Each structure stands twice: as C-alpha cells, then as structure tokens.
C-alpha cells in the first residue's frame, strides 16, 4: 500500500456550547471571528451549527459549535481534545489581555511553549482555548476579519490542538501515518505537571500542530468540550488514500459523508478522540456570496424542504454587528435582528 497524501493540518474544530446567543456574542464580538455559516446540525436539525472563521472561511480557520441549549456541563479528560489554540500576530497579546479584561473573559498567565508565548483562556461555557503569538508571513493564506478586532491582533486560524490520551503510543503512530512529524518534547505546563508534551507538525501553514499529553484524568462530553477535530484531506483522492491508511492501521472509518461545504470521513482514533477527514471543496462560499457569508440560515440538501418546521424549533438569535470596519469601535457594536429567525 502506498503512503497517503499527508494532511496539511487542521481543517476545523467542532465544539459543544449551551446558549446559542451567548456563543455568537463571544466568538463574533469578543474574539472577532466572522460568522461564515449559520446552519443546523445535520444529525440533529433541532440544533444550530455555527461556523466562525477568518474573513473568507479559509480551511484551517473555522471553529464550529453545536449550541445544545440546556446540555450538561462537560469535563475535559483523557480521550479528548483538551485545548484548541489559535495564531495571533506577534506582539498582540497585550491587546488581548486588555480586551479580555474589558469583556470579563476568564484567562490565565502567559506560558512559554516550544519557544512561543501562549495566552490560555476560556469561553463562556468553560471551553479551554489559547492564543499563540507567531510571525504571520506576507503570503499567509488566512484573511483577517476586522469588524471587531484590528488586523494587528486579529486571529489568523488555528495553531494547534492538544490531545489528552491515556496511552499516546498508537495515536502518535497514527499521526505519523497521517503525515505529521515529531518535532519536539518538553515538560508540560498548566495541564498535567510532570508529564511531557510531544509536538507533531504537518507541512501546511495553518493548523499545523498536534500536541500529545498523557493523562488518565476522566472526562465527559458536554458544553465546554470539543466534539471532534477535522484534518484537511484536500481532494477526494487524498481523502480516499487517507481512509485506506486509517483502515489499514486497524481503525473503522465511516464511508464518505456529504456535509455540503466539504465531504467528510469520521473515525475514533486509538485514544478515543473523534477525528474527521474533510475536503477543501466546495467551501463556505458555495451557497452564499462571499460578502454575505453567515447572512442567512442555510439548510443544506433535503432540509430546505423542512425550513418552516426547522425554523419554528430554533431559538431566535441576533448576529453582532460592528459600527466600525476597523475593529476600533468594538464597544459601540450593537446587534441587528435575524429577520429569518424572527419570521
């Protein structure tokens, strides 16, 4: 069997939230990401699915959420993505700490990790998130969204995810099969002191890193936890070769599933984390103009015929709208009603 086409890195990360309005307010207004798609959970159409990303929904930038309303509080533990980290420009963490103070965001002291400065914080559901200062190259593929946050500080896609695993060995071998290379090990900080964090890197410019930490701490899925992490398999052929490699490693990937904006394959890796393989195409602008991404409730495929029923079961939400296009006037932002949700 030939080796699969290496993944360039993370495609998206999907998490569980509670209140949909609070989720929108935090990820759009406080963190300054663009709502690039407003849809439903295709496996549970009674629930929203929000996609937050850079200005164009570039692969490697989208954090997505299932806001399951009154779902129970989760707990991060073994067999989960324990941290999701985003890239921000060098020198911007002072801005972010000031902003977090203004918005009442729960954050921790900065830490140094593999020569980079990391600012850990939590979203309103307690989801552990991090900002990592990096040099953003001139040819970076991400496009900053500057409605609420200036370009000098805007989030520029994923940096990494951290996996907590009881026995990392088989997962580390799987990551190598997927095209990641081990690039370093250091003592963990702020997670499980005394254990070692091992970093794996893909070749892509965004979302290139997966960190692995051993832990036997128990966890449970619920709001404030990651549901799954998706890795880029840009074309159908790339995905098929990766799926074959995953099967050969002894895992049980699903057949390809059409998710409307990408095509997906899912499997649980050896430590229990749900992995997804996702294509680049068709993309978030395949059913909405780029200028109006997230502007309406999109119901893919068969769900459009059930629009009236689905909309009636979803809570009303309003999307934060900024008065300033430069991120300089975030505090004066107000929200415009979602006409479809109110209809």
TrEMBL record:
Annotated spans, Disordered: 309-343
Gene3D superfamilies (alphabetical): 2,3-Dihydroxybiphenyl 1,2-Dioxygenase, domain 1
Keywords tagged on the record: Dioxygenase, Oxidoreductase
GO MF, any single term: dioxygenase activity
Pfam families referenced in this protein's UniProt entry, alphabetically: Glyoxalase
InterPro entries given in the database record: Extradiol_RC_dioxygenase (IPR052537), Glyas_Bleomycin-R_OHBP_Dase (IPR029068), Glyas_Fos-R_dOase_dom (IPR004360), VOC_core (IPR037523)
Limits of the VOC domain: 9-134, 157-280
Bias kind Basic and acidic residues: ranges: 332-343
Protein name in UniProt: Ring-cleaving dioxygenase
